[in-house]
Design brief:
Blueprint lengths: L24 E3 L7 E3 L14 E3 L16 E5 L2 E5 L6 E4 H18 L28 E4 L7 E5 L3 E4 L3 H10 L2 H26 L20 H13 L2
Helix pairs in contact: 3-4
Length: 237
């Protein structure tokens, strides 16, 4: 493939031309949020028609990685902020919940389209990055605890996805990943309830494992609050 600006040869997975710096690929698929080559009419990941509109905005929010101004884009019907350099994506809480709900509905209608992603090892050389809105350091979260995609989450404002992470999350949801996450949460709740029953019978207090107090708080998928209500119902009635 060749850069449409300077004509230099580029690899098919390149997002910027190494010679002139022109952007070659952008997030433009309204279905899977995959990156596609500039000028493409259909997504190379899922085949959906491309729908991307750059939106003028006065918002001055900085990329957590590059510290450049984020650009507002409309992908299909979803408003997102995108870094023009690293191709990371910022999704506020409302936009993210809509993405999750829409992809779960698609999964229910179409069935599981692909196997769940397998663990490939987590990044060890990392640093925490600030929220573009409040500038506080965000939590690093394994999305749904079993997706093997680590995202940066500000509970109040939204989630930061590095390049291609949002597409991987969508694939995880379509493959039934949230159903698996819910099943694992229910299993964990039942296990803790049995521990509590055993402790009550023996007259001992139930030990809490390290980090258990925020086990559900870091999910960042909308499942956390539901799990929290289940915990209250099981443990504190």
């Amino acid at each position: 493939m060749n850069c449409p600006t300077c004509g230099a040869p580029v690899s098919s997975d390149a997002t910027q031309c190494e010679h002139c710096g022109s952007r070659l690929a952008v997030v433009a698929c309204p279905s899977c949020f995959g990156m596609v080559f500039a000028g493409a009419k259909f997504c190379s990941h899922c085949g959906a028609a491309i729908s991307r509109t750059e939106v003028p905005t006065n918002i001055k929010e900085l990329c957590p990685r590059c510290r450049l101004n984020l650009e507002a884009v409309l992908i299909g019907k979803t408003n997102l902020l995108e870094c023009p350099k690293c191709q990371g994506i910022w999704a506020d809480t409302d936009s993210l919940q809509k993405i999750y709900a829409d992809r779960e509905e698609q999964a229910a209608v179409l069935g599981t389209a692909a196997p769940l992603p397998q663990e490939t090892g987590f990044e060890t050389n990392f640093h925490y990055v600030p929220c573009p809105v409040c500038n506080k350091l965000m939590n690093r979260v394994n999305f749904a605890h079993c997706s093997h995609v680590i995202v940066d989450v500000c509970r109040e404002h939204g989630t930061w996805f590095d390049k291609d992470e949002l597409r991987r999350i969508v694939e995880f949801i379509r493959a039934g990943g949230l159903d698996q996450a819910r099943a694992e949460e229910i299993y964990e709740l039942e296990r803790k309830r049995e521990e509590l029953r055993t402790a009550q019978i023996s007259g001992a207090s139930m030990p809490m494992s390290s980090g258990s107090s925020n086990y559900y708080g870091d999910v960042g998928t909308g499942l956390a609050s539901a799990a929290g209500h289940l915990i209250e119902g099981l443990f504190f009635k």
